[in-house]
Amino acid sequence: MTYRGFARLLAPPLFLALAACSSGGLGPSKDSPYAPGRKAGAEAVDGLLVGHRLMEAGEHELALRAFTRAAAAEGLTVDVLSALGSANIGLGRLGQAEKLLRRAIEQDDAVPEAWNNLGVVLMERDQFAEAAQIFQRAYALDDGKSDSIRDNLRLALAKTQISDYAGADEEQKYKLVRRGSSDFLIRSIP
After folding, report:
1. What is the mean pLDDT of each run of 10 residues along the chain (190 residues)?
2. Can you name the CATH fold of 45-188?
3. What pLDDT was estimated at residue 168?
4. Which of 121, 125, 124 is nearest to 138 (CA)?
5. What burial class does residue 99 get, using C-beta atoms within 10 Å of its C-beta: 0-12 exposed, 13-18 middle, 19+ buried?
């Protein structure tokens, strides 16, 4: 018997044995370790909501993708621009974050969080005087309700005074702390 003849003889029982191992049907089994695919006809979840959840989980790159999808669906609204800027802050892309946040605050319905996050970027880039002005605007828009904006304003004013009077020799260390889904706070490192 040749190899081809043997393969033709063995193929049908082999296919029946493999079919018996299957859970049935052509779809994925219920105990599959993989995420479910896209459901036909289902409505997509809001990209901003998904992005903010990913930001909370520390997945800034995935959040940036979700915010980009939201921008495609909704346009470049204040919320989308602010969210894109926040994701870029989380990724350490301060130049891109600054551009996006400046575009967000140029719009009439800019939120205090966008102003605050722009101030955080400016603090990270050692532009303390402008950051203090931005934090003052954020604090005024927020009616003084946010402790994190107030703390950022205090730090910016202190850094402005230190750089004006103490000279460049004294350098104070600080770090960026994320609070909430897209609000950042600057903390001094003792």
Report:
1. 67 65 61 73 82 93 94 92 94 94 89 92 92 92 88 89 56 59 62
2. 1.25.40
3. 46
4. 121
5. middle
The domain limits of the chain are 45-188
Residues 6 or more apart in contact with residue 150 via CB below 8 angstroms:
139, 144
Give the burial string for 73-83 (b: 16+ CB within 10 Å, else e): eeeeebbbbbb
Q: Cα separation of 9 and 84, whole Å?
A: 61
- Looking at residue 100, its pLDDT comes to 95
Distances (CA, A) of 158 to 38, 46, 147, 173: 52, 40, 16, 13
Tokens at 32, concatenated: 């599959």
**Hunting for tokens 């081809």 — which residue is that?**
4
Q: Phi and psi (nearest 5°) for 48? A: -65, -40
Provide the pLDDT for residue 106.
Answer: 92
